[in-house]
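So, read this over?
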Amino acid sequence: MTTITPFLWYDDQAEQAATYYTDLFADSRVDSVARTPDGTALVVEFTLLGQPYRAMNGGPGHPHTDAVSFQVDVDTQDELDRVWDALLADGGRPLACGWLHDRWGLAWQVTPSMLGDLMTGGGDPEANARVFAAMRDMVKLDIPALQAASAGR
């Protein structure tokens, strides 16, 4: 069977990153670690929320960019806050509109699962404009504020 697996390049912390991500999300685990003869992790296979990933310690020169990011959809503000804070811990950097870089420079979007519905506003272009305007002013997304914007409050 043909499959596609996201493959992430780290300077030298692939195993630490994979362990951190698998501790953060339920239904996640480190599946295997291929090591060099001296015991250093080379390729780490892991699963996040049922999706397989691979990470490699490839050395410097290939930093992560915003051209590839991972979107985490959450149902509640508490879950959004938990994931957001965890991904920012120990050196992450908030960006805008729900985007951030974690401590390894990987780009993430932490978004409400209902964002698409809020943006379409049931086909109401004014609701769309209100939600879009509210979101543009946010760094970490605020679900109640987005819901209020969609409803015109």
About this structure: The mean pLDDT is 95. The longest strand covers residues 41-48.
